[in-house]
Design a protein that fits this description.
Protein name: beta-galactosidase
Structural class: alpha+beta
Bound molecules: 2-acetamido-2-deoxy-beta-D-glucopyranose
Number of helices: 14
Organism: Triticum aestivum
Keywords: Apoplast, Glycoprotein, Glycosidase, Hydrolase, Secreted, Signal
Strand order of the largest sheet: 4-5-8-9-10-11-12-14
Main location: secreted
Strand content: 25-35%
CATH architecture of the largest domain: Alpha-Beta Barrel
Distance between the termini: 75 Å
Number of strands: 46
CATH class of the largest domain: Alpha Beta
CATH topology of the largest domain: TIM Barrel
Oligomer: single chain
Radius of gyration: 30 Å
Shape: globular
GO molecular function: beta-galactosidase activity; carbohydrate binding
Helix content: 10-25%
């Protein structure tokens, strides 16, 4: 019997086991949290966008996120990178979504898949393929059949790919959440009844995909039941989901901000990021995602716009180049550990809110097993405070939260940064040490090359014309000036009006000027004094897009390009050229030939030069370059150049444009973390190039025979282009006696010991480097920030020797604030700080 029954029963049994396993590993939720494999969970999640790095970087980025305390990786899915033409898909290289998901799985982390497929994300056209705009009758993100049908096909395609790999948690995989649409709530009203219908359709379409994991819609007040709405903001502690049966989820906590060409560089202080996270979990939050944990690079022409920079560094915990940003990364890691110590009571306990002062409060959670955790907050943005809680005194710096996993001992305060600061510099390398004089050039014709594409007596919309196949659109016209010119009284001015984004103006084959909009306003008008000649004058205008808009109501209808051109200041009035005969040409000749491609096909077009021409507009440069030594990440220094595009070995590094940012008062030498953050706070680099260095992934280099191709629009000095290695050169630390000193790794042990541990400074150079000199050391009341510390009125005379003894010529060291070298108290009654700056080499 057994032998006979086996073959029939076994498959059934296996099926039953599989079903049980699926149910056990599935994801549901209640009012408190997601429930994974039957257990409530607090989750720290980290956004890493796969096409903003390269596959060779993925394992390390994911490992750094895991090491930083992430349970989960989050990514958008980038539709226009995948569906390059209707029904034509691309999933290779940076766009190998399955491989990225596998890297996350292999690291043992969960995955949150925000399919969108509209994503915004400062990504070109918000992620929607440009071709979809040109399918007749299509309107994006509303109750529109062509849009919905393409959105549904793509969503289904992605879900099916994930199902095929058995990636959903319901299949035993690691995808625990999926998102449809993105921040639609901001704009739904603008779409009227169609907006509401679309939001409901999107949610229902997602639910019908049957993934077995919950769907979310972020910043969306109107969602079908069973879809969870979530929060995106700098702070989400006050957020409440639509339904009381749903958990509080924060899909985007912005640890910094993106950059636009022509603007300075925003920073969000780690103390404030930590404050926002601690407030969120203290107030019942259950999933918190850093958008972004690694921002990376907008390679090629993927940057959204207009004017989003090629760098998408975002001041994230891992920098654009894949290096941990300290202290931010490490401060948040300690925060995550501290929150995890509280997980059980937070998830199973009852919460009580206690007032501890006018702007001070405690969120206390007690559970059945006697556990108690407390989050003590001082939300005063100026004054430090001492609060009493359960008969003890706690000092709470302004705008900070202390975490007490036992309602007694502080393991973490958001404003007391114990971690070291790592200072990173771009160290220049020569571009070609071993292979000099290997330049070749190709000069674009000014104006129409080959034949024009069409002639019109008016201006056409730029984006409608290029359909984003290129940034560039030529317009040329000519006009006659009579023989009596120049007569006195003529002061001609060329006036150009444009909807955006940028233009270079040429008169009689000379570049006479350039103009651009800026971050908040893409349109511009420009007035250039010119010299005309008697007879025929030729005007050639190169109009450019710098990334298509990535969000906003009806954003796909926002055009670009020239709107009016005339010459004023003539004795006899204004010459209006707007309705002249304009000849149009889409794209550049060099793009048409694919000059950036590594193959030999274009060899005869390139002209070898021993010295490349400088300050010459519309020039393509090709040069053989050496591989920068070592394995540090590499940036290409383009400070000597104007604006253009650059490739290494055929890989598009992206747009470069070291456009100078304005000098304004948003750049302050020191940044006050206290008070509500906004992107205008704590900027750096005012009056400097917005983006000087462009990330070139190491994996794009060959061992030898590397080719850099640059297309320069305005003119620059290509001989000054260099690679730079991104190198950690020094470390700093600033720790006070009253900083939490409990070792989070052995929390249980440290409290049962009952012995107070003194605060300590830990310094560590990158692997392979030692602390080579101590630049500053003061035990007393020093002040300032890394690389500009200053001694205060209290300073232990042996500070330097104590630190040198402990730290010199080794990779890492620890100096306790109770070190016997500091035996003599330099100033009794004063809270002492140990500040150190040291070089690594
Ligand atoms: C939490 O509150 C509920 C309802 O008031 C009560 O039934 C439960 O016992 C409380 N749990 C604890 C751990 O205090
Ligand atoms: C004014 O003078 C310019 C330059 O000679 C000529 O091209 C244009 O047609 C004249 N405009 C009028 C309105 O006469
Ligand atoms: C000339 O061009 C400028 C900028 O494009 C525009 O603002 C102005 O109205 C034009 N003037 C005339 C008289 O057409
Ligand atoms: C950007 O352009 C707008 C409109 O032309 C102008 O008001 C604003 O001052 C400009 N901002 C900067 C930072 O240049
Ligand atoms: C682009 O072309 C379409 C179709 O002709 C038109 O409806 C739309 O207004 C144009 N867009 C702009 C920005 O001009
Ligand atoms: C760093 O110090 C260690 C221990 O003193 C030594 O073995 C090693 O060679 C040093 N490394 C460098 C790069 O100086």
């Amino acid at each position: 019997m057994a032998a006979a029954a086996g073959p029939r029963l076994l498959p059934l049994l296996l099926l039953l086991l599989q079903l049980l396993a699926a149910a056990a590993s599935g994801v549901t939720y209640d009012h408190r949290s997601l429930v994974i494999s039957g257990r409530r969970r607090l989750l720290i999640s980290a956004s890493i966008h796969y096409p903003r790095s390269v596959p060779a970087m993925w394992p390390k980025l994911v490992a750094e996120a895991k090491d930083g305390g992430a349970d989960c990786i989050e990514t958008y899915v980038f539709w226009n990178g995948h569906e390059t033409a209707p029904g034509k898909y691309y999933f290779e290289e940076r766009f190998d979504l399955v491989q990225f998901a596998r890297v996350v799985k292999d690291a043992g982390l969960y995955l949150m898949l925000r399919i969108g497929p509209f994503v915004a994300a400062e990504w070109n056209f918000g992620g929607v393929p440009a071709w979809l705009h040109y399918i007749p009758g299509t309107v994006f993100r509303t109750n529109n059949e062509p849009f919905k049908s393409h959105m549904k096909s793509f969503t289904t395609k992605i879900v099916d790919m994930m199902k095929e790999e058995r990636f959903f948690a319901s299949q035993g995989g690691h995808i625990i959440l999926a998102q449809i649409e993105n921040e639609y709530g901001y704009y739904q009203q603008a779409y009227g009844a169609g907006g509401k219908a679309y939001a409901m359709w999107a949610g229902s379409m997602a639910l019908a995909q049957n993934t077995g994991v919950p769907w979310i819609m972020c910043q969306q007040y109107d969602v079908p039941d069973h879809v969870i709405n979530t929060c995106n903001s700098f702070y989400c502690d006050q957020f409440k989901p639509n339904l009381p049966t749903q958990p509080k989820i924060w899909t985007e906590n912005w640890p910094g901000w993106f950059q636009t060409f022509g603007e300075s560089n925003p920073h969000r202080p780690p103390e404030d990021v930590a404050f926002s996270v601690a407030r969120f979990f203290g107030k019942g939050g259950s999933v918190q995602n850093y958008y972004v944990y690694h921002g990376g690079t907008n390679f090629d022409r993927t940057a959204g716009g207009p004017f989003i920079t090629t760098s998408y560094d975002y001041d994230a915990p891992i920098d654009e180049y894949g290096l941990k940003r300290l202290p931010k990364w490490a401060h948040l890691k300690e925060l995550h550990k501290s929150i995890k110590l509280c997980e059980h009571s937070l998830l199973s306990g009852n919460s009580t809110l206690l007032s501890l002062g006018p702007q001070q409060e405690a969120d206390v959670y007690t559970d059945h097993s006697g556990g108690c955790v407390a989050f003590l907050a001082n939300i005063d943005s100026e004054k430090d405070n001492v609060v009493a809680f359960r008969n003890r005194q706690y000092d709470l710096p302004a705008w900070s939260v202390s975490i007490l996993p036992d309602c007694e001992n502080v393991v973490f305060n958001t404003a007391k940064v114990r971690s070291q600061t790592l200072m990173v510099d771009m160290v220049p390398e020569t571009l070609q040490a071993s292979i000099p004089h290997q330049w070749s050039i190709f000069t674009e014709r000014i104006g129409i090359w080959d034949k024009n594409d069409f002639v019109r007596n008016e201006f056409v919309d730029h984006i409608n014309t290029t359909k984003d196949s290129t940034d560039y659109l030529w317009h040329t016209t000519s006009f006659d000036v009579d023989k009596s010119y120049p007569a006195s009284g003529n002061h001609p001015i060329l006036n150009i009006g444009s909807k955006g984004h940028a233009v270079h103006a040429f008169l009689n084959n000379m570049l006479i000027g350039s103009a651009y909009g800026n971050g908040s306003e893409s349109s511009f008008s420009v007035h250039m004094p010119i010299n005309l000649k008697a007879g025929k004058n030729e005007i050639a205008l190169l109009s450019m897009t710098v990334g298509l808009k990535s969000a906003g109501p009806y954003y796909e209808w926002v055009g670009a390009g020239l709107t009016s051109v005339n010459i004023s200041g003539m004795k006899n009035g204004t010459i209006d050229l707007s309705s002249n005969n304009w000849a149009y040409k889409i794209g550049l000749e060099g793009e048409h030939y694919g000059l950036f491609k590594p193959d030999q096909g274009n060899n005869q077009r390139w002209r070898p030069q021993s010295e490349p021409p400088k300050h010459q507009p519309l020039t393509w440069y090709k040069v053989n370059v050496d591989v920068p030594q070592g394995d540090d990440p590499v940036g290409l220094d383009m400070q000597s150049m104007g604006k253009g595009l650059v490739w290494l070995n055929g890989n598009a590094i992206g747009r470069y444009w070291p456009r100078t940012s304005p000098t304004d008062d948003r750049c302050t030498p020191s940044c006050d973390y206290r008070g509500k953050f906004s992107p205008d706070k704590c900027r750096a680099g005012c009056g400097k190039p917005t983006q000087r260095w462009y990330h070139v992934p190491r994996s794009w280099f060959h061992p030898s025979g590397n080719t850099l191709v640059v297309f320069e629009e305005q003119g620059g000095d290509p001989t000054k282009i260099t690679f730079s290695r991104r190198v950690a050169t020094s470390v700093c630390s600033f720790v006070s006696e009253n900083y939490p000193s409990i070792d989070l790794e052995s929390w249980d042990k440290s409290i049962s010991d009952g012995n107070p541990v003194a605060a300590k400074v830990e310094l560590s150079c990158p692997k392979g480097k030692n602390i080579s000199s101590v630049k500053f050391a003061s035990f007393g009341d020093p002040s300032g920030t890394c690389r500009s510390y200053q001694q205060g009125s209290c300073h232990h005379p042996d500070s330097l020797s104590v630190v040198e003894k402990a730290c010199l010529n080794i990779n890492s060291c620890t100096v306790s604030l109770s070190d016997e070298g500091f035996g003599e108290d330099p100033c009794p009654g004063v809270t002492k700080t140990l500040a150190i700056e040291a070089d690594c080499s």
